[in-house]
Amino acid sequence: MLKKLYPDYIFPTIQDIDDDFFRKLNIRFLIMDIDNTLVPYTCPEPTKQAHAFLQRLKKENIAGGFVSNNHAARVELFNKTIGLPYICNAKKPFTAGIKKLMKIIEADKMHTALIGDQIFTDIYGGNRAGLTTILVNPIESSETPFFAFKRKYEKMVLKKMEEEKKICLKSTDAQNILQ
Fold this sequence. Notes:
Elements: E1 9-11, H1 19-25, E2 29-32, H2 48-59, E3 63-67, H3 72-79, E4 86-87, H4 96-104, E5 112-116, H5 119-128, E6 132-136, H6 145-165, H7 175-178
Parallel strand pairs: 1-6, 2-3, 2-5, 3-4, 5-6
């Protein structure tokens, strides 16, 4: 059970993922969380950094879309200038929303990755769906008490992963998550 919580890859931010990463893994589809992955919760529209990341995906011919647990109005506002397919109220870590988006973008498991900032929703859901999973540090460090509570347990999961895999998560991997 615990291994289903382990991400396949960890990056500090979306900007730290270079173009070769997706090529090497033969990733042609990317399912993305929005809040605290691409933009802060408090940011209703895409930032320059989010637009730059999405442009890089387009340049690499990587199709994508958003799977968010947030409500339709929030996701629609964020996606207004982007126009990618999306699923809102996805209820991650359940896989129905992830699989629904995969069907819409005609993605297959072998060539699809999911990127998010939360282990218990994004990573667990992506792993349950059989996808490559990528964890990024949350953009905003100040969160609601509920998320702060969850982050405490996420740190425990990452420590356990580090011990089991006998790896050292360096600053270029997930130092901010482990602090």
